[in-house]
Specification:
Distance between the termini: 37 Å
Largest sheet: 6 strands, mixed
Number of strands: 10
Length: 257
């Protein structure tokens, strides 16, 4: 059975076809990157995968189930989590609070369900402990201990990007979609991020879909790469194949790469 694939995805906005008949398949626990210039349709593909947009045609298949037509929340419950180009965190909440929000889809007892019935209270307490254990593991994994109780809005940009990555991990996804995770990071932060992405794949057994402009990162960590332009697939393959494809060199990488 296929782990994750998109089949003939197509969507138009006002007569302009943003994604046109794009198909690809991703092996379990691999890192699959999508590259292309601004406006090429990369983020639109993520919006289709995560249910923000509904395609005019095509399917998004996770473990044999077509997710097209489900709400973003239902798709998250099925196991697809994502980060965004523009950080979407609660700036006036702490790092821990933001990470705990990532656990919401796994919470079976309501926030107030334990307040009135002793039996439910103990169940809610056990559940709370379990969620906090998961979040504590993410704090340790991403080295966020020093900022765990700080308000996210007060953190430097690179740290906020890590918190958003952590919140997506808190969903315990099967597929993690990272949209420009290194944007705004300095060279050292990007190097650390590359290591973390590979470690996430190994330690959390997660399949990773990556949109990223930093070609050194893409070429260094990807198992396979899809190159698109104007919403159309140009080529797909291992990094060396894509890097040497004449249309890719012309469109994205420049003659010097």
């Amino acid at each position: 059975m296929d782990h994750f694939r998109v089949d003939k995805l197509t969507i138009s906005f006002g007569g302009l076809t943003a994604v046109n008949n794009v198909s690809f398949q991703v092996e379990k626990n691999s890192i699959f990157s999508i590259i292309g210039p601004n406006g090429s349709g990369k983020t639109t593909i993520f919006n289709l995968v995560s249910g923000i947009y509904k395609p005019n045609e095509g399917q998004v298949i996770l473990n044999g189930e077509n997710l097209v037509g489900l709400t973003p929340d239902r798709i998250a419950r099925k196991g697809i989590a994502r980060t965004f180009q523009n950080i979407e965190l609660f700036g006036k909440a702490t790092v821990m609070d933001n990470l705990m929000l990532g656990r919401h889809i796994h919470m079976k007892t309501g926030v107030f369900s334990g307040a009135f019935m002793w039996g439910k209270r103990s169940r809610a307490a056990r559940e709370e402990i379990r969620h906090r254990e998961v979040v504590e593991g993410i704090v340790d994994f991403l080295d966020l201990q020093s900022v765990r109780d700080q308000f996210v809005g007060n953190l430097p940009y690179g740290k906020r990007k890590l918190v958003e990555l952590g919140r997506a991990l808190a969903l315990e996804p099967k597929v993690l979609c990272l949209d420009e995770p290194s944007a705004g990071m300095n060279t050292e932060e990007k190097e650390d991020l590359s290591i973390w992405v590979k470690d996430i794949r190994e330690d959390y057994q997660v399949t990773i879909l990556l949109i990223e402009h930093d070609m050194n990162m893409v070429m260094g960590i990807s198992d396979r790469i899809l190159a698109i332009n104007h919403g159309v697939k140009i080529t797909e393959g291992v990094p060396q194949e894509v890097q040497n494809h004449p249309e890719v060199i012309k469109a994205y990488l420049g003659e010097g790469i």
